Amino acid sequence: xxxxxxxxxxxxxxxxxxxxxxxxxxxxxxxxxxxxxxxxxxxxxxxxxxxxxxxxxxxxxxxxxxxxxxxxxxxxxxxxxxxxxxxxxxxxxxxxxxxxxxxxxxxxxxxxxxxxxxxxxxxxxxxxxxxxxxxxxxxxxxxxxxxxxxxxxxxxxxxxxxxxxxxxxxxxxxxxxxxxxxxxxxxxxxxxxxxxxxxxxxxxxxxxxxxxxxxxxxxxxxxxxxxxxxxxxxxxxxxxxxxxxxxxxxxxxxxxxxxxxxxxxxxxxxxxxxxxxxxxxxxxxx
Length: 286
Description:
Layout: E1 7-13, E2 16-24, E3 48-49, E4 56-57, E5 64-69, E6 72-76, H1 78-84, E7 91-99, E8 108-116, H2 121-134, E9 136-144, E10 147-156, E11 159-165, H3 186-198, H4 212-225, H5 245-256, H6 278-285
Parallel strand pairs: 1-7
Antiparallel strand pairs: 1-2, 2-8, 3-4, 5-6, 7-9, 8-11, 9-10, 10-11
């Protein structure tokens, strides 16, 4: 089934305008359950209860308020809240181009795909290739659903990804944590390097990871539908804790060591460095 566009936008930088179609890049695969009445198995309805009068409040009597002090609120009407929202925009205005590596993934939020719309194929292809050659991404602004977003446009395989970014105020600084300064011993660091090398891969392959919890839940639901009982396993006993860091590293290396050593004289293929970004990986495959 072909993907369906959710909107049409125009990417602008300088005097260049690129008509594009917007597509969702991800889909939620979370497993959800409904709340039921234990006695009869019927669905439960959510109701709002007034904390002071202890009565159920109907939807028409519910208003929105902001708590500016303990138990003190200022109330906003729907019209006032609507006036505060950002007007939706069909344009993504590019403000600057920065190295892709300079945008830390901690700022990544929702991702979208962009595909060329009618009449925009040539400008789209030029934009993608120019970004890829420069090793940069485009940063800009986009308004949607009453909010203004920072977005990053970057090459991804043969197309573009528009990555919605978090604002600086939405990311807590790691300096808030109490991280003690600890001296790392050379011998420990050497073993850690060996362990990393032993478990290294050329690139991230998302298909090699599966959601085991979702698979277990789907299998359990199927059994329940068929009338079977679910066996609940006992919790495994905790193993002995290894306190010595050097010993833990050595045991990790022994556990991950290959079963058979390479034959003498066998040539080892040179190790390739994993590309740092999806767009770079696409070029590495070609």
